Amino acid sequence: MAASFLKNVCLRSEHFSRNLAARIAQHQMIVPSAARERHRPALVICAAHFAKKAGKGQPIAIIEEEPIEVNKNPEDLVKYCVGSNYLVEGSDVELGPDSEYPDWLWDLHTGPPKKLEEIEPDTKEYWKKLRKLNIKRNNRLAKLKKF
Length: 147
Prior knowledge:
This protein has helices at residues 2-12, 18-25, 33-37, 74-79, 124-144; strands at residues 28-31, 61-64, 80-81, 93-94. By secondary structure, the protein is mainly alpha-helical.
């Protein structure tokens, strides 16, 4: 009875998956790191409150996810494309010399987005930016209307 109730409660909650609901039913609670980062309260339900009052319930074991380590080694950052290997085994892709990459790669804009005044008016980029700004303006004005 208590396990099915817990599964129903957890499946209805937007913060928990089916796998997590099964772990709660087995008297284990995992606090997802995403819930901690977003400062959302994690739903903690103790099955002992819904079971018979024969004795004290089992304590809930909290298992926390370990954060991913960031490689800050300058030699690795220059030599490898850090984070490109998502498999357990293997290594990251090694970067080649600049001559092996196409010329257009070095012309890409990597800074902050350009303002409308900085873009030439006869380009597609200009009209896309103008349309985007007008949509944002219309949405802001629509929020001001009461009904």
